Amino acid sequence: MDRDRLAAMYGVDVTYSPAPDVHVPVPEDTVVAVLAALGVDAGTPRAVRDALAAAEQRRTHRLLPPCTVVRPGRRTLKQALPDLPEGTRLRTETQAGEELADPPRTPGRYVLRATGADGRTAHGDLVVAPTRLSGPPGRTFGFMAQLYSTLSSRSWGRGDLGDLADLAAWSGRALGAGFVQINPLHAGVPGRPTDPSPYRPSSRRFPDPVYLRIEDVPEFAHLPREARGELDALLRKAAALRDGVLLKDALIDRDAVWELKARALELLRSVPLSPGRRAAYADYLAEQGQALDDHATWSALAELHGPDWHSWPAGLRDPRSPQVARARTTHLDRVDFHCWLTWLTDSQLAAAHRAARDAGMPIGIVHDLAVGVHPGGSDAWSMQDVLAGGISIGAPPDAFNSRGQDWGLPPWRPDALAATGYAPYRDLVARMLRHAGGLRMDHVMGLFRLWWVPEGRPPTDGTYVRYDAEAMLGLLALEAYETGAVVIGEDLGTVEPGVREELADRGILGTSVLWFERNYTGEDADRRPLPPSAWREACLATATTHDLPSTAARLTGEHVELRHRLGLLTRPLAEEEADDAAEVAEWIALLGRLGLLPEGAAEEEAVVKAVHRFLARTPARMVGVWLPDGVGDRRPQNLPGTSDEYPNWRLPIADPGGNPLTLEQLAASSRLHALAEEVRRAVARAEAGSPPGPAGSAAGSAAPGARHP
């Protein structure tokens, strides 16, 4: 069928498999709508024939794509250019224009030139990706934390970059932690109320100034006396706000925090920059270029016209329009204010990572890259040419959610990315790695394919659109190689066969969560918990994530009761509780057989330790400890499937009774110290090759994971 051939040319699937050997056809209207979002008319048979002919003509007449990605020992130039016209001659050059005798094998960026048999010439980028990333330097453990929830006695009602620096310095020096993995710090969408989710940001390219530690801005010390009174009043309000958050059952209020910080920053901006800092700011502006100018312009316009650019006056919806150019000039002071905020935040990010490395952390700060951006935000406005309009990404129906999922995020257009030489994607990854020892890729499967849902349709009527994974992974790996960073892929949920193997072959770590690691494959698949020896090495091993119950809640069954209270269960409470208790009992029995529970199973804290001893015994290169697990916090930071029903992304870390704890109290917690010491010693013993103790007898293979509840 012509429409199916056309869809295949653009990477649009016409069927999908929710389970092995099950193939579901994609609605024809969905295929037409998705092709339309890619700029292809497939509405009639004639339009389909014309589109096929045009695509074939482009393929046969193109000498080179804008960007070619190769990988020594894995992907040659010939394999990367299967449609190269007969008789075409290729030569390669360095970025400086020096011609190379042989195709380069050293990772880096080069220039590829082609001369066709008919005399036509073309050139494009040549990216030589590393064959394999080296990964972490030895095995290590670290903490996973949501920074906003980790507030100190100095922060203004939510954790900030000063707290991040302190958390890294303390855990590295006092506990021997090798990394701190945090939530995305992407710029949020302004307005009241603000969307609190860090995974639906306005911009992934720039950080959120709400994380600034105001007192660490150098100009704070030089505020004129006449403005000091107002700043002191703001400091008192900030202290009251912080004290309120630290009361039981209180919530973090991002909007209230930003209202105070924004006014304080307005005062600090009145302080002239010193010559050295002005020069540094000028360098930053020059380095960030058009991208920062766009983000700051959007931020200024959002103050005037609201946070969704679709509702702005028509002339302002195009970032390259004359009206926007005039607005930049008219509102230059506000544009510069937002540029300055971004510079300050970038500077404090750099300081936090330096603190981590100075504390002896071999990795340091691991940042998190969300899978997409808010459709009304800064990136969606400034990158309309490479994001698909009228489309949202999500997940297809599966065993965990029969209705599928719509995440409300516009996807990259694979054709537009390729046409730019993947410049926006390369720029994004490079920005994320500016001040990082590692990068977690949320929903890393999106580098291979994404579930596209046309606007106005349910998630069940979506389809997969495929990306050039060789290019996406190669460019990601090159940026990580050049900065020495670790890359962790969040590969939980519906994962296409071969994806985990491809990531491992490239030295990109996966994510293995204890409760999902069961025997799912083979003739003897029986869903028994996997013993530590059966876990994969190339992963970050954890007991939980920000989307799952804490370990204490899992062990006590409190997470089932919570879901019952909110009406989220699909079966009777008694059935859910019985299955959950049986699952926990299986794991506790395995911990006992392995000799990891010498204290016995009566005490919750002892089982939490045993769970982490288990993680340390696996071959995983990185072991992550969910920071709330260290103090017995019962509450999930995010409960998928809820919005107003549960205070997602707004809870400070708390003790088992729900009493919020400051960073200082965390650092003084004997329970947290004891858990960290157990993990540190166990990882060190395993790294040194000490006998692990009883091995257990169960066998199996790595579980495919499960979509977050």
Automatic annotation (TrEMBL):
- For region Disordered, the annotated ranges are 84-108, 683-709
Q: Coiled coil located at which positions?
A: none
Give the UniProt keywords, A-Z. Carbohydrate metabolism, Glycosyltransferase, Transferase
The Gene Ontology terms for molecular function here are: 4-alpha-glucanotransferase activity
Biased composition (Low complexity) is annotated at 685-709
Q: What EC number(s) does its UniProt record assign?
A: 2.4.1.25
Top enzyme class of this protein? transferase
Family statement: Belongs to the disproportionating enzyme family.
The name this protein goes by in its record: 4-alpha-glucanotransferase
Originating organism: Actinacidiphila rubida
